[in-house]
Amino acid sequence: MKFQFNVNTNDQDYLDYNKFWMLRSHYGKKQMTTFRIIFAVIFAVIIGVYIVISLYGGNFTFDTFIGIIPMAILLILFELLLSPVFVLFLKSQLKSLKKKGKMGYSPSSVIEFYEDVFMETTPDNKTEQKYSVIERISVVDNKVVYIHVNNIMSYILPFSCFESKEQYNEFFEFIKTKCSNIDIY
User: Fold this and answer.
1) With contact defined as beta carbons under 8 Å apart, do 103 and 149 qualify?
2) d(CA 167, CA 177)
3) How far apart are CA 114 and CA 130, in angstroms?
4) In whole numbers, what is the pLDDT of the chain averaged over residues?
5) What predicted TM-score, i.e. pTM, was given to this entire model?
């Protein structure tokens, strides 16, 4: 065994991971950008139809032009408030999952890294993965390492699970040999 980490995860860690995934990660940024573009195109089509109808009806006046302003303001507000509204939605989803007893993470686990595989052991199960399943690794604000095995699932390694900066550096050098897609945020 190369490395063994006792990982304690709480609700804030899980919320931080989901916020990172949607707002900053390689995966979520694409989805958010696509969603923003689609919404802007829909709004542009609605405004365009409004203008065309006004032009063909012969009613395109200054008042018609002023009528476009509230729609443009709505679009701008949507674009500005999408991220904060998403965070509120995440928090409510987390509370709902907690009430149902179906959390998306295990509060405590042990993650062991060997030369050819890594394993996570929780009170409920044991998962063994080959390094080839790792799609990318994200190091966020020198506080946490996310090991993404696909676009939805990741292993969370908070820096608090490392005994020292030296151990973190050793682990980082080791994991770089297993995955070349490493993003530092």
Assistant:
1) no
2) 16
3) 10
4) 87
5) 0.77
